[in-house]
Amino acid sequence: MTSRSGSLPNAEDAPYFLFAHEPYFPPHGLREINTTIVEAAILLHSRVQQPDGDRMHRILNNGRRRTREIVPLATLTHELDGGAGWLAVGDWEQVTHDLLILSRFGTCDAIRLGLPAIERALMCTAPNSELLTFDAATGQRVTYGPTERASLLAQLQTRLDHPTAEHTYGAGPVARTWPDRPRP
Q1: What order do you get walking across the sheet with 33-39 strand by strand?
Q2: Are 174 and 107 in contact (CB under 8 A)?
Q3: pLDDT at 71 > cutoff 70
Q4: What would the pLDDT profile of 7-63 be if each residue is shown by its tens digit?
């Protein structure tokens, strides 16, 4: 576990934070961006509301995560008693807004995603929740749940671990911007 005064975890092992947001179109973009993945360490950035970002960073680095695990905001909400614990942690809405500004304008590395509606909804639900949809074309109800959510996270993990030239993490105007750290 780290804090603003401690050292940052090894970036290769640290978790990643996924959050959905209002869609936007990047310059010259053909597809809207509605979900973003950032390194957990970015929560310590001086332009992210503190101490809220630091508290969220500590929750992400609680020792229960797999190496480089992508952790959606909805998972944190689930872990915080369905959201009741956010009062003790901080203002997640302001923190995600700050992260969006940093990632959108190239101040930090980010994977910007344009997820389809069902996939985005799966990232916005708790790990064990189900999403019931109605397919108007077939007249059938379709249920998506933990299996589909885990599959999507696995696909995103593969994209993070094995980037293509088109989706290279860190390929932006700023190659690796880490949070401000105290100088020795």
Answers
A1: 70-72, 16-24, 33-39, 111-113
A2: yes
A3: yes
A4: 445 556 789 999 999 999 988 777 899 999 999 999 999 999 999 999 999 999 988
Distance CA 52, CA 29 (A): 32
Count each helix (H run) and each strand (E run) in the chain, helices first. Answer: 6, 6
Cα gap 142→155, rounded to integer Å: 21
Burial of 146 (0-12, 13-18, 19+ CB in 10 A): middle
- Phi, psi (deg, nearest 5) at residue 25: -105, 120
Q: Can you list the positions of beta strands (E) in the chain?
A: 16-24, 33-39, 70-72, 111-113, 131-135, 140-144
pLDDT for residue 164: 60
Cis bond upstream, residue 51 (ω within 30): yes
Using the Cα atoms of residue 124, residue 127, residue 129 and residue 130 in order, give the sign of their dihedral: positive
Q: Taking the alpha carbons of 57, 61, 64, 66 in that order, is the dihedral positive or negative?
A: positive
Question: Beta-strand (E) ranges in 86-176?
Answer: 111-113, 131-135, 140-144
Torsion of CA 22, 25, 26, 29, to 10 degrees: 150
Q: State how far the Cα of 161 lies from the Cα of 167, in Å rounded to an integer.
A: 11
